[in-house]
Structures are given as structure tokens and as C-alpha cells.
Amino acid sequence: MKPLSLVPPDAARALAGVIFDLDDTVLDHGALTEAAYAALFRLRETGLALIACTGRPAGWGEVLQRQWPIDATIVENGAVALVREQEGDVSGHRERHAQRAGASRVVTLDDLDREARRARRAELVGLANDIVRRFPAAALADDNDQRVTDVTIDIGEHRHVPPEDVQKMRAELRERGVRTLLSSVHLHLTRDPSDKATGIVRLLAARFGEDPTRARHRYAFVGDSGNDGVAFAAFVLTFGVANVRAHLGKLSVPPQFVASLPMGRGFGEIAQKIAELRKNAPEP
């Protein structure tokens, strides 16, 4: 891993966009600071597309699409995405759940139709309830009513579940054919095959017309933890905020460049560096 001072100017200037995680990357323990919010506008002003990618629920993604200067939000670890569309736009995926917001609307992009999605998630809710009954240190996370694809068990946000119990839960769920994803605070249960990297690439191809291979070079990724490992491995230009150092043991491919500051302040550092390199690009 290298400091931001060594970011190649040509790599920053060639970018079409920046993709970033939320928790402990842009957010400080769930809070959005003024500096981090300003960093998004700084990147936007250089002509970059901005895409959030998070394990947080679809309900969060809708709020972000309405209030943040971003082009898309990938939620629930790559399973679905949310975008804004102008009224009358009929492009995109099969299933659309639209809510009007003036001249534009927020649309959820999902490869499953509504009924199939509800049935799949109902099964996961039943499994999750069975797990937390037998592991009383755990509980269903308080964001589940905003989710559409996965179910989350609180293992570290408001509860403390021993690591050995987390491993037992994951082993049992695997036996039942359920995929699990582990973040710093939640155990995610899903039957979707997506992860953050595949969700990002699918969105870039479907909505931005990107070639999946070229997209790896045209977009940078910013993250902070082991849950971002697949995205660190998928993209050529990658960044970590300083707190990523605590998670290096979980990363087979670490980020290339690391900020000196953690969380939102680190994201601000990264944004400032990219903006400076792009601003100082020679005229073509």
C-alpha cells in the first residue's frame, strides 16, 4: 500500500467515476460529516460519476439518491441498485419500483420480479428467526424493515456475539444453502449470488454502457474493510481510508493507496487528491 502522494496523475485523469463504500469510509460511525459531504461535491465538480456501494438496506439507498450528489446507489451487498430517472424513461431492468419526486423518480433495479423477491426474502426471515432463537446473544438487526433482498443479524452494532457463535451460525446457514456475508456489525443472509464487485459491474454495464473489462480501469473504488475485499480485487485503481489497516488480515488484495486519516476525513483526503490531479491535467 502506498500514500496518496504516489497516485499516478494519468490514472486519476483517466477516471470516469468513483465508487465508494459508506460505513467507516464516507460515514463516521454512521454519521455524515460536512467534510465528507463536501468531498462528494468536489469529486462531482471534476466530471466524475459517483456511485455508493454498501451492505446497508434499500431504504437507505433511496434516501441517498434523493439527497446526495450521486448517480447510483448499490445496496445490500450488490443485490439491487437505485437510480434517479426522468419521467418517461423506460430503459433498464425488468422490475421497477418507482416513487415520484418532482420531474424525476427513484427506481429500484432488480433482476427478480416483486413476488419472487418477497417469497425469497420471507424464507430468509424464517431462517434468521430460527437462528436468533438458538443464539440468544444475537438479534435481528434494526434495519431489516428497509431491506428487500437479504436479512441481517446484529452481531456487533447493538449486541456483542462471540466470534465462535458467529462461525457456528455461518456453518449452519451454509448447510441450509444460504450465503452469508460478514460485516463489522452484521451477519447478512442471502440467496442472491451477487457481491459488491458483481453488483457494481452489472450496474455499470446496464446503466452506463460500460464494457465490464474496461470498467475496471475507468472507475476507482474506495473502501475500508474486509467486506470490500472483492471490490479491491476487481478494480485497478483502489483507495482505502486509514482504518482499513485494521482489516488487512481479511484482505487478499489490499487497496493500492491509503489515506493518512480515517473514515470521512480520509475520504476527504482521497477526494482532494483526485480532484487536484484532474484539475491540474494539461489541456488536450
UniProtKB/TrEMBL annotation:
Keyword Hydrolase: yes
InterPro entries listed in its UniProt record: HAD-like_sf, HAD_sf
Entry keyword annotation includes Hydrolase: yes
An example molecular function term from Gene Ontology annotations: hydrolase activity
The name this protein goes by in its record: HAD hydrolase family protein
Record keywords, A-Z: Hydrolase
